[in-house]
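Subject: Protein entry, chain in single-letter code together with its fold tokens

Category: Structural biology, sequence-to-fold work with a learned token vocabulary.

Notation: Tokens come from a learned vocabulary of local backbone shapes, not from coordinates.

Start of record: The labelled sequence and token lines come straight after this line.
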Amino acid sequence: MKLAVVSAGLSLPSSTRLLADRLTSALVDRVPEVEVEVIELRDLAVDIANNLVTGFPASRLRAAIDAVTSADGLVAVSPIFTASYSGLFKSFFDVIDHDALAGKPVLIAATGGTARHSLALEHALRPMFAYLRAIVAPTAVYAASEDWGAEGLSERIERAASELAGLMGKEQPVRAQVDEVVPFEQQLAALRP
């Protein structure tokens, strides 16, 4: 079984790569036999740009595309810039044939400086992979600067990894625990002076 991990972080070290590594580790804990190939898009930026204007991938880019398209599962992590995925992230998926990810299980994740950008997973990444007909895990993982070491990130990582393992046919996903629902009227009453 093969797992491709695409990290679009630009810096070194990168919080995007750190999140990709934590997601990968959680998946490998569930599927120890999986072979992992990490693709750092930062290293392929020039090749991606050249492919966009020439239509021909260089050998390193071709190897990355082959790794993604032949994998049994995909972890795709992008930094969020201006409320959406990075241009490098989008450009990489633009050079992949639009039918190549059909039916492929994908776990989407992103990093950003503030929690304000967390919905980018739902309004940018998830629709892109839906357009490519991939099967996106229900739990997307967003990590803002304040999330590192905070309560909740590890739980989201574990739940997302479990869902991806399930989509890859290796595990039954862990069901999320739902806190008691507080009626809306009660929430509004608590806000009144």
